[in-house]
Amino acid sequence: MGKSTLFNAITGSRRSIVGDEPGITRDRIGGIAEHGRKRFELIDTGGIVPDDHALIPSQILRQARFALDAADHIIFVIDGRTEITSNDRELALMLRKLNKPLLLAVNKIDTDKNQHLVDDFHQLGIAPVFGISAEHRAGIYEMLDLVTAPFPETPRPAPLEEGEETPAKKTPPIKVSIIGRPNVGKSTLINAIVGEERSIVSPVAGTTRDTVDEQITHKGVDYLFMDTAGIRRKGKTHLMAEKLSVVMARRHIRMAHVVLLVIDATEGPLGQDATIAGYAHEEGRALIVVVNKWDAAPDKNKAKFEDELRDELKFLEYAQVAFVSAKTGSGVGQLFEMIRNAHKWASHRVGTGELNRFSMGLVLEPDTRIKYITQASIRPPTFIVFPDKKRELHFSAERQLVNRLRDAFGFRGTPITIKVKFSANPFEGLRKNEPAKRPPRNTAQKSVKRTGGESSKSAPKRKAGTGKNAARRAKSGTVRNKQKGKK
Protein backbone atom coordinates (compact mmCIF):
# COMPACT_ATOMS: atom_id res chain seq x y z
CA MET A 1 0.00 0.00 0.00
CA GLY A 2 2.83 2.38 0.76
CA LYS A 3 2.07 3.20 4.41
CA SER A 4 5.74 3.04 5.42
CA THR A 5 6.78 5.15 2.43
CA LEU A 6 4.20 7.76 3.42
CA PHE A 7 5.39 7.63 7.04
CA ASN A 8 9.01 8.23 6.00
CA ALA A 9 7.97 11.06 3.66
CA ILE A 10 6.01 12.92 6.36
CA THR A 11 8.55 12.45 9.15
CA GLY A 12 11.53 13.05 6.87
CA SER A 13 13.30 9.94 8.14
CA ARG A 14 13.95 6.32 7.29
CA ARG A 15 12.42 4.81 10.39
CA SER A 16 10.20 2.28 8.61
CA ILE A 17 11.55 -0.42 6.31
CA VAL A 18 10.25 0.00 2.76
CA GLY A 19 10.16 -2.79 0.17
CA ASP A 20 8.13 -4.46 -2.53
CA GLU A 21 7.18 -7.38 -0.28
CA PRO A 22 3.74 -7.02 1.36
CA GLY A 23 3.40 -7.18 5.14
CA ILE A 24 6.88 -5.92 6.03
CA THR A 25 5.68 -3.66 8.86
CA ARG A 26 4.28 -5.52 11.86
CA ASP A 27 4.79 -3.42 14.99
CA ARG A 28 3.57 0.14 15.33
CA ILE A 29 6.33 2.65 14.57
CA GLY A 30 6.17 6.20 15.92
CA GLY A 31 7.87 9.39 14.82
CA ILE A 32 7.63 13.17 15.28
CA ALA A 33 6.62 15.28 12.28
CA GLU A 34 6.02 18.99 11.72
CA HIS A 35 3.82 20.78 9.21
CA GLY A 36 3.04 24.48 9.18
CA ARG A 37 4.62 25.14 12.61
CA LYS A 38 2.55 22.30 14.08
CA ARG A 39 4.30 19.32 15.63
CA PHE A 40 2.51 16.00 15.96
CA GLU A 41 3.24 12.31 16.41
CA LEU A 42 2.72 9.99 13.47
CA ILE A 43 2.24 6.23 13.96
CA ASP A 44 2.76 3.65 11.21
CA THR A 45 0.91 0.36 11.72
CA GLY A 46 1.15 -2.99 10.02
CA GLY A 47 -1.25 -4.10 7.33
CA ILE A 48 -4.62 -4.76 8.99
CA VAL A 49 -6.66 -7.83 8.02
CA PRO A 50 -9.83 -7.73 10.18
CA ASP A 51 -10.92 -11.39 10.00
CA ASP A 52 -7.55 -13.13 9.88
CA HIS A 53 -7.18 -15.12 13.11
CA ALA A 54 -3.64 -16.32 12.44
CA LEU A 55 -1.13 -15.45 15.13
CA ILE A 56 0.87 -12.67 13.51
CA PRO A 57 -2.04 -10.93 11.65
CA SER A 58 -4.11 -10.97 14.83
CA GLN A 59 -1.20 -9.47 16.76
CA ILE A 60 -0.79 -6.79 14.07
CA LEU A 61 -4.47 -5.92 14.47
CA ARG A 62 -4.01 -5.81 18.24
CA GLN A 63 -1.10 -3.37 17.91
CA ALA A 64 -3.07 -1.28 15.41
CA ARG A 65 -5.96 -1.07 17.89
CA PHE A 66 -3.67 0.64 20.40
CA ALA A 67 -2.72 3.23 17.77
CA LEU A 68 -6.32 3.78 16.62
CA ASP A 69 -7.58 4.31 20.17
CA ALA A 70 -4.96 7.00 20.82
CA ALA A 71 -5.21 8.72 17.42
CA ASP A 72 -6.74 12.17 16.85
CA HIS A 73 -6.92 11.64 13.09
CA ILE A 74 -6.79 8.48 10.96
CA ILE A 75 -5.36 8.23 7.43
CA PHE A 76 -6.56 5.14 5.56
CA VAL A 77 -3.96 4.40 2.86
CA ILE A 78 -4.96 2.27 -0.11
CA ASP A 79 -3.22 1.31 -3.35
CA GLY A 80 -4.74 3.29 -6.23
CA ARG A 81 -3.60 0.78 -8.87
CA THR A 82 -5.57 -2.15 -7.45
CA GLU A 83 -9.25 -2.91 -7.28
CA ILE A 84 -11.25 -2.67 -4.07
CA THR A 85 -11.24 -5.95 -2.16
CA SER A 86 -13.51 -7.34 0.53
CA ASN A 87 -10.80 -6.69 3.13
CA ASP A 88 -10.75 -3.02 2.10
CA ARG A 89 -14.51 -2.77 2.61
CA GLU A 90 -14.38 -4.48 6.01
CA LEU A 91 -11.52 -2.25 7.15
CA ALA A 92 -13.33 0.88 5.95
CA LEU A 93 -16.43 -0.18 7.88
CA MET A 94 -14.37 -0.81 11.03
CA LEU A 95 -12.69 2.63 10.77
CA ARG A 96 -16.00 4.46 10.24
CA LYS A 97 -17.38 2.91 13.43
CA LEU A 98 -14.60 4.55 15.46
CA ASN A 99 -16.28 7.97 14.95
CA LYS A 100 -12.93 9.73 14.60
CA PRO A 101 -11.72 12.19 11.94
CA LEU A 102 -10.92 10.00 8.94
CA LEU A 103 -9.71 10.49 5.37
CA LEU A 104 -8.80 8.20 2.50
CA ALA A 105 -5.38 8.53 0.86
CA VAL A 106 -5.28 6.82 -2.53
CA ASN A 107 -1.57 6.17 -3.04
CA LYS A 108 0.51 5.72 -6.21
CA ILE A 109 -1.30 8.43 -8.17
CA ASP A 110 1.94 9.55 -9.78
CA THR A 111 0.61 11.54 -12.74
CA ASP A 112 -2.47 13.51 -13.69
CA LYS A 113 -3.45 10.71 -16.08
CA ASN A 114 -4.12 8.48 -13.04
CA GLN A 115 -6.44 10.95 -11.29
CA HIS A 116 -9.49 9.19 -12.67
CA LEU A 117 -8.56 6.16 -10.55
CA VAL A 118 -9.41 8.10 -7.39
CA ASP A 119 -13.11 8.29 -8.29
CA ASP A 120 -13.58 4.54 -7.92
CA PHE A 121 -12.72 4.66 -4.20
CA HIS A 122 -15.58 6.96 -3.20
CA GLN A 123 -17.73 3.86 -2.87
CA LEU A 124 -15.91 3.00 0.38
CA GLY A 125 -17.96 5.72 2.06
CA ILE A 126 -14.96 7.70 3.39
CA ALA A 127 -14.60 11.39 2.69
CA PRO A 128 -12.55 13.34 1.87
CA VAL A 129 -10.48 11.38 -0.63
CA PHE A 130 -6.96 12.51 -1.65
CA GLY A 131 -4.94 11.20 -4.55
CA ILE A 132 -1.30 11.17 -3.46
CA SER A 133 2.10 9.73 -4.34
CA ALA A 134 4.10 8.92 -1.23
CA GLU A 135 7.19 8.12 -3.27
CA HIS A 136 7.17 11.45 -5.14
CA ARG A 137 5.57 13.44 -2.27
CA ALA A 138 2.71 14.61 -4.48
CA GLY A 139 -0.51 15.72 -2.79
CA ILE A 140 0.85 15.13 0.70
CA TYR A 141 0.99 18.78 1.79
CA GLU A 142 -2.64 19.44 0.82
CA MET A 143 -3.65 16.37 2.83
CA LEU A 144 -1.61 17.52 5.86
CA ASP A 145 -3.24 20.96 5.72
CA LEU A 146 -6.57 19.29 6.42
CA VAL A 147 -5.22 16.85 9.03
CA THR A 148 -3.35 19.47 11.09
CA ALA A 149 -6.00 22.21 10.84
CA PRO A 150 -7.32 21.65 14.43
CA PHE A 151 -3.84 21.07 15.91
CA PRO A 152 -2.32 23.85 18.06
CA GLU A 153 0.78 25.61 16.81
CA THR A 154 4.08 24.86 18.46
CA PRO A 155 4.80 27.73 20.89
CA ARG A 156 7.94 29.69 20.20
CA PRO A 157 10.33 30.38 23.08
CA ALA A 158 9.77 33.82 24.64
CA PRO A 159 12.63 36.31 24.18
CA LEU A 160 14.93 36.63 27.17
CA GLU A 161 14.72 39.78 29.22
CA GLU A 162 17.77 41.78 30.14
CA GLY A 163 19.83 39.94 32.72
CA GLU A 164 17.84 36.71 32.33
CA GLU A 165 19.90 33.57 31.85
CA THR A 166 19.25 31.04 29.12
CA PRO A 167 17.34 28.07 30.57
CA ALA A 168 19.37 24.90 30.85
CA LYS A 169 18.75 22.33 28.14
CA LYS A 170 17.11 19.10 29.15
CA THR A 171 19.46 16.16 29.43
CA PRO A 172 18.97 13.88 26.41
CA PRO A 173 17.77 10.35 27.13
CA ILE A 174 20.11 7.37 27.38
CA LYS A 175 19.70 5.41 24.16
CA VAL A 176 19.56 1.67 24.78
CA SER A 177 19.56 -0.84 21.91
CA ILE A 178 18.34 -4.40 22.53
CA ILE A 179 20.09 -6.89 20.23
CA GLY A 180 20.40 -10.66 19.94
CA ARG A 181 19.56 -13.73 17.91
CA PRO A 182 15.98 -14.33 16.75
CA ASN A 183 13.55 -15.71 19.33
CA VAL A 184 15.66 -15.03 22.44
CA GLY A 185 12.99 -12.79 24.01
CA LYS A 186 13.96 -9.24 22.96
CA SER A 187 10.37 -8.12 22.35
CA THR A 188 9.21 -9.72 25.58
CA LEU A 189 11.99 -7.89 27.40
CA ILE A 190 11.05 -4.45 26.07
CA ASN A 191 7.41 -5.13 26.95
CA ALA A 192 8.49 -6.00 30.50
CA ILE A 193 10.63 -2.84 30.72
CA VAL A 194 7.94 -0.53 29.35
CA GLY A 195 5.11 -2.23 31.22
CA GLU A 196 2.82 -2.66 28.20
CA GLU A 197 2.52 -4.69 25.00
CA ARG A 198 4.72 -2.50 22.85
CA SER A 199 6.12 -5.18 20.52
CA ILE A 200 4.53 -8.22 18.97
CA VAL A 201 5.56 -11.42 20.75
CA SER A 202 5.26 -14.82 19.09
CA PRO A 203 7.18 -18.11 19.01
CA VAL A 204 7.91 -17.50 15.32
CA ALA A 205 11.56 -16.50 14.90
CA GLY A 206 12.05 -13.17 13.12
CA THR A 207 8.68 -11.66 14.07
CA THR A 208 10.19 -8.21 14.71
CA ARG A 209 11.41 -6.42 11.59
CA ASP A 210 11.30 -2.69 12.22
CA THR A 211 13.03 -1.13 15.20
CA VAL A 212 10.51 -0.27 17.90
CA ASP A 213 11.31 2.80 20.02
CA GLU A 214 9.85 3.57 23.43
CA GLN A 215 10.91 6.38 25.76
CA ILE A 216 10.28 6.06 29.51
CA THR A 217 11.42 7.82 32.66
CA HIS A 218 12.69 5.89 35.67
CA LYS A 219 13.75 7.69 38.87
CA GLY A 220 14.19 10.98 37.05
CA VAL A 221 16.33 9.55 34.23
CA ASP A 222 15.01 9.34 30.65
CA TYR A 223 15.66 6.19 28.62
CA LEU A 224 15.01 5.49 24.94
CA PHE A 225 14.76 1.73 24.39
CA MET A 226 15.09 0.37 20.84
CA ASP A 227 13.94 -3.17 20.14
CA THR A 228 15.76 -4.42 17.03
CA ALA A 229 15.19 -7.38 14.76
CA GLY A 230 16.95 -10.66 15.44
CA ILE A 231 20.31 -10.81 13.67
CA ARG A 232 20.74 -14.02 11.68
CA ARG A 233 23.76 -15.40 9.89
CA LYS A 234 24.25 -13.95 6.41
CA GLY A 235 23.63 -17.34 4.82
CA LYS A 236 20.21 -17.63 6.49
CA THR A 237 18.80 -14.22 5.49
CA HIS A 238 17.03 -14.73 2.18
CA LEU A 239 14.11 -12.30 2.19
CA MET A 240 14.80 -8.67 1.40
CA ALA A 241 12.91 -7.57 4.52
CA GLU A 242 15.12 -9.73 6.75
CA LYS A 243 18.29 -8.32 5.20
CA LEU A 244 17.06 -4.76 5.71
CA SER A 245 16.13 -5.62 9.29
CA VAL A 246 19.71 -6.70 10.01
CA VAL A 247 21.05 -3.50 8.43
CA MET A 248 18.69 -1.41 10.57
CA ALA A 249 19.67 -3.35 13.70
CA ARG A 250 23.37 -2.67 13.13
CA ARG A 251 22.55 0.99 12.44
CA HIS A 252 20.80 1.29 15.80
CA ILE A 253 23.82 -0.27 17.52
CA ARG A 254 25.87 2.70 16.29
CA MET A 255 23.18 5.12 17.49
CA ALA A 256 22.94 3.62 21.00
CA HIS A 257 24.82 4.64 24.15
CA VAL A 258 24.34 1.26 25.84
CA VAL A 259 23.63 -2.12 24.22
CA LEU A 260 21.73 -4.99 25.86
CA LEU A 261 22.84 -8.33 24.40
CA VAL A 262 20.05 -10.85 25.09
CA ILE A 263 21.08 -14.52 25.40
CA ASP A 264 18.79 -17.52 25.81
CA ALA A 265 19.58 -19.22 29.13
CA THR A 266 18.12 -22.53 27.94
CA GLU A 267 20.61 -22.71 25.06
CA GLY A 268 23.63 -21.02 26.61
CA PRO A 269 26.13 -18.77 24.83
CA LEU A 270 26.56 -19.71 21.17
CA GLY A 271 28.92 -18.66 18.41
CA GLN A 272 26.29 -16.38 16.87
CA ASP A 273 25.99 -14.58 20.21
CA ALA A 274 29.72 -13.85 20.02
CA THR A 275 29.34 -12.54 16.46
CA ILE A 276 26.52 -10.18 17.46
CA ALA A 277 28.43 -9.03 20.54
CA GLY A 278 31.38 -8.30 18.25
CA TYR A 279 29.26 -5.77 16.33
CA ALA A 280 28.68 -3.76 19.52
CA HIS A 281 32.30 -4.18 20.67
CA GLU A 282 33.68 -2.92 17.35
CA GLU A 283 31.44 0.16 17.57
CA GLY A 284 32.77 0.86 21.08
CA ARG A 285 29.36 0.65 22.77
CA ALA A 286 28.94 0.00 26.49
CA LEU A 287 27.43 -3.46 26.80
CA ILE A 288 25.38 -5.50 29.25
CA VAL A 289 24.79 -9.23 28.74
CA VAL A 290 21.18 -10.08 29.63
CA VAL A 291 20.66 -13.80 30.24
CA ASN A 292 16.94 -14.18 29.55
CA LYS A 293 14.59 -17.11 30.33
CA TRP A 294 16.52 -17.80 33.53
CA ASP A 295 13.36 -19.25 35.07
CA ALA A 296 13.48 -22.05 32.48
CA ALA A 297 17.24 -22.72 32.69
CA PRO A 298 18.05 -26.39 33.43
CA ASP A 299 20.87 -25.42 35.80
CA LYS A 300 20.36 -22.44 38.10
CA ASN A 301 24.08 -22.08 38.95
CA LYS A 302 24.80 -18.45 38.01
CA ALA A 303 28.54 -18.65 38.72
CA LYS A 304 28.96 -21.65 36.44
CA PHE A 305 26.91 -20.08 33.66
CA GLU A 306 28.89 -16.83 33.88
CA ASP A 307 32.18 -18.74 33.65
CA GLU A 308 30.98 -20.43 30.48
CA LEU A 309 29.82 -17.07 29.19
CA ARG A 310 33.17 -15.39 29.87
CA ASP A 311 34.97 -18.29 28.21
CA GLU A 312 32.84 -18.00 25.05
CA LEU A 313 32.94 -14.18 24.96
CA LYS A 314 36.52 -13.55 26.06
CA PHE A 315 36.61 -10.05 24.59
CA LEU A 316 33.70 -8.95 26.82
CA GLU A 317 35.55 -9.16 30.13
CA TYR A 318 34.31 -5.65 30.95
CA ALA A 319 30.59 -6.40 30.39
CA GLN A 320 28.12 -6.72 33.25
CA VAL A 321 25.87 -9.80 33.37
CA ALA A 322 22.20 -9.76 34.42
CA PHE A 323 20.04 -12.86 34.91
CA VAL A 324 16.39 -12.05 34.17
CA SER A 325 13.09 -13.56 33.13
CA ALA A 326 11.27 -11.17 30.81
CA LYS A 327 8.19 -13.38 30.89
CA THR A 328 7.74 -13.10 34.67
CA GLY A 329 9.52 -9.77 35.09
CA SER A 330 12.07 -11.21 37.50
CA GLY A 331 15.36 -9.26 37.56
CA VAL A 332 14.22 -6.66 34.99
CA GLY A 333 14.32 -3.80 37.51
CA GLN A 334 18.09 -4.13 38.02
CA LEU A 335 18.74 -3.22 34.38
CA PHE A 336 18.06 0.49 34.93
CA GLU A 337 20.89 0.92 37.44
CA MET A 338 23.25 -1.17 35.32
CA ILE A 339 22.45 0.97 32.26
CA ARG A 340 23.08 4.20 34.21
CA ASN A 341 26.43 2.94 35.48
CA ALA A 342 27.55 1.73 32.06
CA HIS A 343 26.58 5.06 30.49
CA LYS A 344 28.36 6.97 33.27
CA TRP A 345 31.65 5.12 32.82
CA ALA A 346 31.44 5.29 29.03
CA SER A 347 31.10 9.08 29.33
CA HIS A 348 33.77 9.44 32.05
CA ARG A 349 36.78 11.68 31.33
CA VAL A 350 40.10 11.80 33.22
CA GLY A 351 42.38 14.85 33.22
CA THR A 352 45.77 14.73 31.52
CA GLY A 353 47.65 15.60 34.69
CA GLU A 354 46.01 12.79 36.61
CA LEU A 355 46.75 10.35 33.80
CA ASN A 356 50.44 11.29 33.68
CA ARG A 357 50.76 10.91 37.43
CA PHE A 358 49.20 7.48 37.00
CA SER A 359 51.73 6.52 34.30
CA MET A 360 54.83 7.53 36.29
CA GLY A 361 56.91 4.43 36.95
CA LEU A 362 54.50 2.22 34.97
CA VAL A 363 56.46 -0.40 33.01
CA LEU A 364 54.37 -2.23 30.40
CA GLU A 365 57.13 -4.38 28.98
CA PRO A 366 60.62 -5.13 30.29
CA ASP A 367 61.93 -1.98 28.63
CA THR A 368 58.84 0.07 27.65
CA ARG A 369 57.61 3.05 29.64
CA ILE A 370 54.99 5.71 28.97
CA LYS A 371 56.30 9.23 28.35
CA TYR A 372 52.90 10.89 27.98
CA ILE A 373 49.22 9.83 28.01
CA THR A 374 46.00 11.77 27.42
CA GLN A 375 42.31 10.97 26.91
CA ALA A 376 41.11 12.02 23.46
CA SER A 377 37.38 11.21 23.56
CA ILE A 378 34.54 9.38 25.30
CA ARG A 379 31.99 6.71 24.30
CA PRO A 380 34.22 4.78 24.05
CA PRO A 381 36.96 6.21 26.32
CA THR A 382 39.92 6.65 23.98
CA PHE A 383 43.48 7.22 25.20
CA ILE A 384 46.53 8.34 23.22
CA VAL A 385 49.81 6.90 24.52
CA PHE A 386 53.36 8.08 23.71
CA PRO A 387 55.83 5.30 24.67
CA ASP A 388 59.56 5.87 25.06
CA LYS A 389 60.32 3.21 22.42
CA LYS A 390 59.37 3.82 18.84
CA ARG A 391 57.36 0.64 18.34
CA GLU A 392 53.80 -0.54 18.66
CA LEU A 393 52.61 -1.91 21.98
CA HIS A 394 52.31 -5.67 22.20
CA PHE A 395 48.81 -7.03 22.74
CA SER A 396 49.68 -8.14 26.25
CA ALA A 397 51.09 -4.70 27.10
CA GLU A 398 47.96 -2.98 25.77
CA ARG A 399 45.76 -5.34 27.78
CA GLN A 400 47.85 -4.63 30.88
CA LEU A 401 47.41 -0.88 30.38
CA VAL A 402 43.63 -1.26 29.98
CA ASN A 403 43.41 -3.28 33.20
CA ARG A 404 45.48 -0.68 35.07
CA LEU A 405 43.19 2.08 33.81
CA ARG A 406 40.12 0.18 35.01
CA ASP A 407 41.69 -0.41 38.43
CA ALA A 408 42.63 3.25 38.81
CA PHE A 409 39.64 5.08 37.29
CA GLY A 410 36.74 2.62 36.88
CA PHE A 411 35.39 2.42 33.31
CA ARG A 412 33.16 -0.55 34.18
CA GLY A 413 30.97 -1.96 31.43
CA THR A 414 32.60 -0.11 28.53
CA PRO A 415 35.41 -0.96 26.12
CA ILE A 416 38.59 1.15 26.17
CA THR A 417 40.47 2.14 23.03
CA ILE A 418 44.26 2.64 23.06
CA LYS A 419 46.04 4.55 20.29
CA VAL A 420 49.83 4.73 20.13
CA LYS A 421 51.70 7.73 18.75
CA PHE A 422 55.38 8.56 18.58
CA SER A 423 56.86 12.04 19.17
CA ALA A 424 58.95 13.34 16.28
CA ASN A 425 62.70 13.95 16.92
CA PRO A 426 63.96 16.96 14.92
CA PHE A 427 67.60 15.75 15.27
CA GLU A 428 66.89 12.21 14.18
CA GLY A 429 69.57 10.99 11.72
CA LEU A 430 72.22 13.51 12.76
CA ARG A 431 75.38 12.52 14.74
CA LYS A 432 76.84 14.62 17.47
CA ASN A 433 79.73 16.94 16.28
CA GLU A 434 79.66 15.39 12.85
CA PRO A 435 81.83 17.54 10.42
CA ALA A 436 80.37 18.77 7.21
CA LYS A 437 81.14 16.46 4.33
CA ARG A 438 83.20 17.96 1.42
CA PRO A 439 82.98 16.76 -2.16
CA PRO A 440 85.78 14.33 -3.12
CA ARG A 441 88.80 15.77 -4.92
CA ASN A 442 89.32 14.81 -8.55
CA THR A 443 93.01 13.71 -8.64
CA ALA A 444 92.95 12.59 -12.27
CA GLN A 445 92.95 16.20 -13.55
CA LYS A 446 96.02 18.37 -12.92
CA SER A 447 95.40 21.79 -11.53
CA VAL A 448 96.43 24.59 -13.85
CA LYS A 449 96.77 28.15 -12.64
CA ARG A 450 94.85 30.37 -14.96
CA THR A 451 94.71 34.12 -15.19
CA GLY A 452 92.04 35.70 -17.24
CA GLY A 453 91.27 32.40 -18.92
CA GLU A 454 94.87 31.84 -20.18
CA SER A 455 97.85 29.86 -18.87
CA SER A 456 100.64 31.60 -16.93
CA LYS A 457 103.13 30.99 -19.74
CA SER A 458 101.08 32.64 -22.44
CA ALA A 459 99.71 35.38 -20.24
CA PRO A 460 101.34 38.77 -20.75
CA LYS A 461 103.40 40.17 -17.90
CA ARG A 462 101.77 42.87 -15.83
CA LYS A 463 103.31 46.27 -15.80
CA ALA A 464 104.55 47.66 -12.54
CA GLY A 465 101.93 49.74 -10.98
CA THR A 466 102.23 53.23 -9.59
CA GLY A 467 101.09 54.83 -6.42
CA LYS A 468 101.36 54.00 -2.70
CA ASN A 469 100.27 50.37 -3.06
CA ALA A 470 102.84 49.67 -5.71
CA ALA A 471 105.61 51.19 -3.55
CA ARG A 472 104.58 49.02 -0.60
CA ARG A 473 104.67 45.86 -2.72
CA ALA A 474 108.09 46.74 -4.08
CA LYS A 475 109.45 47.46 -0.61
CA SER A 476 108.11 44.22 0.84
CA GLY A 477 109.69 42.30 -2.02
CA THR A 478 113.07 43.94 -1.37
CA VAL A 479 112.95 43.05 2.30
CA ARG A 480 112.25 39.39 1.51
CA ASN A 481 115.14 39.21 -0.95
CA LYS A 482 117.58 40.65 1.64
CA GLN A 483 116.44 38.07 4.21
CA LYS A 484 117.00 35.26 1.74
CA GLY A 485 120.50 36.61 1.03
CA LYS A 486 121.44 36.65 4.69
CA LYS A 487 120.43 33.04 5.04
Structure description:
- It is a single chain.
- The N and C termini lie far apart (125 Å).
- The protein has three domains: 145 residues, P-loop containing nucleotide triphosphate hydrolases (Rossmann fold), CATH 3.40.50; 173 residues, 3-Layer(aba) Sandwich (Rossmann fold); 69 residues, 2-Layer Sandwich (GMP Synthetase, Chain A, domain 3), CATH 3.30.300.
- The chain contains twelve helices and 17 strands.
- The protein is an alpha/beta fold.
- The strands form five sheets. Strands 7-8-6-9-10-11 form a six-stranded mixed beta sheet, with helices on both faces. Strands 12-13-14-15 form a four-stranded mixed beta sheet, with helices on both faces.
- It is 30% helix and 19% strand.
Brief descriptors of the model:
487 residues; alpha/beta; GMP Synthetase, Chain A, domain 3; 6-stranded mixed sheet; 4-stranded mixed sheet; 30% helix; 19% strand
CATH architecture grouping of the largest domain: 3-Layer(aba) Sandwich
What fold name goes in the CATH topology slot of the largest domain?
Answer: Rossmann fold
- Enumerate how many helices there are, as a single number: 12
Low-confidence stretches: 452-457
Using the coordinates above, name the CATH class of the largest domain: Alpha Beta
Largest sheet: 6 strands, mixed
Percent of residues in beta strands?
15-25%
Give a summary of the structure in a few sentences.
This protein has 487 residues and is α/β, with parallel strands linked by helices. 30% of the residues lie in helices and 19% in strands.
